[in-house]
Records
---
Amino acid sequence: MDLNPATPAFAQTLAAALPEGTIDTPEARYLEEPRGRYAGQAGVLARPRSAQEVATLIRMAGEARVGVVPYGGGTGLVGGQVAPEGAAPLILSLERMTAIRDVLPEENVLVAEAGVILADIQKAAEDAGRLFPLSLAAEGSARIGGNLATNAGGTGVLRYGNARDLCLGLEAVLPDGQIWHGLTRLRKNNTGYDLRHLLIGAEGTLGVITAAALKLSPRPARTGTALLVIRDAAAALSLLALARDQMGETVSAFELIHRQGFDFLAETMPEVRIPFDTIPEWSVLIEVGTSAALDPAQALEALFAAALEDGLVSDGLIAQSAQQGRDFWTIRESIPEANRRIGSVSSHDISVPLGAIPGFIGEAGERLAKLGDFRINCFGHVGDGNLHYNVFPQPGRSRADHKNQRDAIKTCVHDLVHELGGSVSAEHGVGRLKVGDLERYTDPAKLSAMRAIKAALDPRGIMNPGAVLRAV
Amino acid sequence: MDLNPATPAFAQTLAAALPEGTIDTPEARYLEEPRGRYAGQAGVLARPRSAQEVATLIRMAGEARVGVVPYGGGTGLVGGQVAPEGAAPLILSLERMTAIRDVLPEENVLVAEAGVILADIQKAAEDAGRLFPLSLAAEGSARIGGNLATNAGGTGVLRYGNARDLCLGLEAVLPDGQIWHGLTRLRKNNTGYDLRHLLIGAEGTLGVITAAALKLSPRPARTGTALLVIRDAAAALSLLALARDQMGETVSAFELIHRQGFDFLAETMPEVRIPFDTIPEWSVLIEVGTSAALDPAQALEALFAAALEDGLVSDGLIAQSAQQGRDFWTIRESIPEANRRIGSVSSHDISVPLGAIPGFIGEAGERLAKLGDFRINCFGHVGDGNLHYNVFPQPGRSRADHKNQRDAIKTCVHDLVHELGGSVSAEHGVGRLKVGDLERYTDPAKLSAMRAIKAALDPRGIMNPGAVLRAV
């Protein structure tokens, strides 16, 4: 089904139907994405101020058969926010829909429009004595509509779930231009198919989220942080199970760090202090957030003692101050930047069943060794089975030297993930980058159901064409 | 689209394609449902032993254009499991698919076939030192496939979520007979539309769940229970917020009890001991489950003291033994039976936003008073905004005396719920009972999207025809 380009004439038609200043020509920033893999086509930019205006835009795009690319904070890592191919699209930015419509601390609910920046939601929750637990590197510029459209993950998933688990209701414009008023604040609602969960993670291909009712949590009164040296990668899982047995849901982060991460920090960011004399092969950063009645440092001491006895850990540090806790987090949070400075040959955002993690790490290393001599930095949200498994050149070589191997490396890693029942996109989504991976690895019954749903809800194929599913 | 009846000839065709004993004539129990509102048509009974056999049955039903009614434990309260109208169906019972395929305590995962009885899953989790927190009155006969198909709720939702929140992956047969192998154990997986959440809560209208990967939790080491007398219904919400501030996620149940519930118990089940000299107008049952490091009774004492100071509670009991805790639960769990013995005129499984609960209770009482003189028992999972709001005749009168008022009462309650942004089916689903309510109260954009999805995935309309959406 061929789409028409968003032409100046189309822009004029839109401009006549919408308030002044809604329609514009997109600046360069709307055509870029963080990793520089895709250059978007310009087309026309729309910056609506209400769901009603979004509905008008989608309806008119449908009539004109012009593709619509929803645009949030532009921080996505898989090219879901730019259209490098096909007819030039209508870029629909939610940046002007930034109202926090409601904060209801007693209900633990916050209602925000799609364009609110994630950090602003965190702040509004904090001001109300509550926690909005979605937390990720791009939170200073990512917008909640995009976080939901991509079902964002981040560091709080272990305790609080993915973005979809933090959403009670949605307002959205469907591909036919109808507004779905689904902004419910209900914890229980079994009236028909769960359209909310269908739109979340659909990356704008089934409609545009315009507002969301979000679930807040009590703020943990006290926080404890530890950096523990573990026996091996397998010990991470046993330690996690032990921690959850001892401390239940209070375990809020459980992040794996490999020696390679410390080495990259030493190499590229010497200002980040590493608190070990000998760099450990494997370590985990654990955070617990407890109620006032429980001393988190004491709980972590008890965990450390039990884990030492079980031979799971050999050494470790329990933060004795908030500052020391932040220092531990600085290490973890600086690793992606260190990676960027080194320059990866290939990066993988994968998940496998928890029990398969040690096997994955061992086997992936062996298979990659056959392809060449690489440095591997494997780190991330091990408590969720989600690893960032990134492959780097040896010192003295550059990523460009391995350019021709990139596809083989990616296939090697992704094939193994698939064999182990894992996912080749754990938290970043499919976008345009992984459309081929989705076709290769997704169960055929699911893929055909996805295509049938897409065709049913968006028969003209105008919504984010080419993302998630190949445009037909 | 007219369906054909499941005839003896069709039964023979199926029998020839499937192992001996798979195809049968349904006994009466497959045609009944707990509230006796619907009598199902007999048709043909199939009891497959594998997803492959389910796929064969669905494919052959599709070719013959025979409707398929999936059947779990038969405990549903909205008639989703029986077909009283239209062509006689193929009743597809999952009762022989009862394998627990895997228990992985370190991963907190259990993989069960759809026919496993909920209590057996709870038991298997317990044997592995884990908790499967889905808990509801029918757990001794309800099967997990049905629990998921209806997104069951129950008493553990406040802490652990609804059935959908406890499911990591599904194996299911789609309406075209394809098996979707989606039995992932992943915590994070952003590869395409979330088919799992679409099938969960679809009540068998988009396919048949044949197995599920379920999320287990650590077992709380210690449990505390309290029965607190609250100032009024509004105080329940403030008390809940206070409890969660003090104790975070350890609050695992928060159940509202009205004086009427105690009165019904005294009237019909005098063996249930009521631990108050003066029956309180409103009370709440609170359960907390903590790690070993925290004394739950002490935490409840602290909550009681703070709530007393805030004027939220006036009296209360904190269980001093496990037995006393169970006694408190016996009160709560006996209320539905007492209700049955009294005989309701109309029962409502509704939810409203937490903040709207006090207003709902007040306004519903006033509106109903205009319709007649009733006794109202309002109780339930107030922490989830989910109330069972049931209307009874005054003493000396029977439900039959009010038969003609039933529809008016239901509409009165449901209209108010809808005005308040609530749901007319919080946890029981739509089934056949609430198809009209769904049409009346559901947002038109959502309803048309639901119909489009149904038509796309099940173009012949064979899957549980007449449930959720009117058969077309």
---
Amino acid sequence: MKNCIIASTSTLYNGEYLDYLLPELQLHFKDCKTVLFIPFARPGGITHDEYTSKAAIVFAKINIVLKGIHTFENQKEAIQNAEGFFTGGGNTFLLVTQLYKNDLMNILAETVKKGTPYLGTSAGSNICGLTMQTTNDMPIIYPPSFQTLGLIPFNLNPHYLDPDDQSKHMGETRETRIKEFHAFNSLPVLGLREGSWLDVKGEKITLRGNLQARLFRQNQLPQELETGTDLSFLN
Amino acid sequence: MKNCIIASTSTLYNGEYLDYLLPELQLHFKDCKTVLFIPFARPGGITHDEYTSKAAIVFAKINIVLKGIHTFENQKEAIQNAEGFFTGGGNTFLLVTQLYKNDLMNILAETVKKGTPYLGTSAGSNICGLTMQTTNDMPIIYPPSFQTLGLIPFNLNPHYLDPDDQSKHMGETRETRIKEFHAFNSLPVLGLREGSWLDVKGEKITLRGNLQARLFRQNQLPQELETGTDLSFLN
């Protein structure tokens, strides 16, 4: 049975890395002594080691040893043997490229679908949708495909940002960009604000955190969803 | 001799479509009775016809007939015979995909390099760089390549946006995103604020408009450039 936490962001304003999620993570990973970390999105271009160290400090607080997947000679085996997964944020194009390059996209999806607990934040959440086509990230590298893990039957827009009425900037708002996606794609898109996450248990998908999320569907008006909403109806 | 206007945006806050550029365009296209419009970026998913009509109204003010490339049976021939080009804004992934799908990327680059005057705004400017990898757009469609026209020897970030010190949003700033690009790519990137444009005459590239632009180079601190700066040193 799928068991995932899919979070908009790792870090809240004025917060520390993962701190707002820590009580959830303690439950989520309660049967894990180790968790496999996927640092491929590399925020700011830091090394895989640096990124793993940063995340490991937080996991140590809940007595879990975090191991970077890049330290394994056989990364497929590392995925198959993992007790839990955490895919950190950064650049989604980079993350997806590396998962394909190392031939890990399918095996990661299969393993998570069988029930190994998964945590994603930001880019690590983007890849839980059917495609990465509603990421906010810059295309700094060309991935072999935009298809992603498909752990949920729709797409995500993490770090969802409401339009700023005061802005004089003429670039597209997030809502406009998602509307452009829907001019050519029929998948629903969930705009997940910072502080929200999805709790996936089998086929049940629940919106968690204190905020509403904004659901965009092709040819429909956007809809605000309350926390606690069961999103399984998007199946 | 190359002859291009490469603008950050088509429209300024409180302005009308292309109005701030109109005196420039009158000079730029002074020898043109017609200009070929490339509407493939389709902002908001509008039709090619709708987009062409919108732009044609502006060009009519300077006595130029704007013709949408989509109305030509032989689009390559339309490019070769054009007196001038205007590629409008919208989604860069869509624009680039369509240019490749119709096998027009190379012939457009060749024709502009021979001297046919070109105007790009936003997505239509993004494609003037060597790659589209510093676009702000959402990857709503998968292009066969990120390579673009290469009319200038660096990349652009149109609609460049300075970090907002007041923001509580934890998504990456534009500067952070460009820094991530530079973790994996060595091309310079020019952040072109709304109201700025590049004037390209042969190999001379001049920053125009009232604003500074922000130049990002790998392993160097960002640099503010004054309007009037000759950017040929980036060759």
